[in-house]
Amino acid sequence: MTLTDARHRIARLLICYDTAPLRSSWQRVAAGGTDAVGGRG
Fold first, then answer.
1. Residue 38 has what pLDDT?
2. 13 CB contacts (<8 Å, ≥6 apart)?
3. Beta strands in the chain (DSSP E)
4. How many CB atoms lie within 10 A of CB 23?
5. CB-CB contact of 41 with 34 (8 Å)
6. Model-level pTM?
7. Integer Cα distance of 17 and 6 in angstroms
8. What is the pLDDT of residue 41?
9. Cβ-based neighbours of 14, under 8 Å, separated by 6 or more
10. What domain of life (predicted)?
11. Closest C-alpha to 37, from 23, 24, 21, 25
């Protein structure tokens, strides 16, 4: 997080996250199967 010069507001926020746990669900959806919550892809 980068603050403004006055340090009372956020100037920039960078969020990094790992999608590895979701890959198998996306692969099932792409293959025409169901997703992790039971919906159709």
1. 54
2. 1, 2
3. 2-3, 10-12
4. 10
5. yes
6. 0.37
7. 29
8. 43
9. 1
10. Bacteria
11. 25
